[in-house]
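Researcher: Good morning. I'm working through a list of sequences from a screen, and I'd like to move beyond sequence-only analysis. For each chain I'm collecting a predicted structure so we can compare shapes side by side. This is the next one on the list. No need for commentary yet; just the structure.
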Amino acid sequence: NIEGVAEFDAAEVLRDVAEMYEPVAEDAEMRLVVAAQAALPVRGNRELIGQTLANLVDNAIKYGAPPEAASADDARREVTLTARRQGGAVELVVADHGPGIAVADRVRVLDRFVRLENSRSRPGSGLGLSLAAAVARLHGGVLRIEDNAPGLRVVIALSASPPVNPSGAAPSGATT
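Model: Good morning. Structure tokens for this chain:
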């Protein structure tokens, strides 16, 4: 059971997180690019989803720069945040152009306290991705780790809230 459950606009939360992390990205000579559809209602704890997105954006800024030295105006120094509807789901995506995570390690990094070799020189506990996956599961969703060719794309897929029927009646075909 989740406390503080309510319907909220996932795209708005994504935009809020991007705005909050804009100065951090600038300090790291990175850019945040947001592509969020309007009105993507989901049901859950807005704060938990926001904290999870913040964690993913923070990781993308820390680890998402291209492995080779790239100029600050290089498009590979972008972190892209996307909110979109995919069928019956709302997908929140954080993508970078860093070294990514090898396919063989993608399941393992979702375990608690796992830190991959290339991240051991940076501060962290190895809990970020496991917590993000746990929050997604708590909300009936999933977290996927995908290749961004180059880089990493982390997708949180949550069930979209059903469209609101202004009459208050159940949509046709729905059971009560």
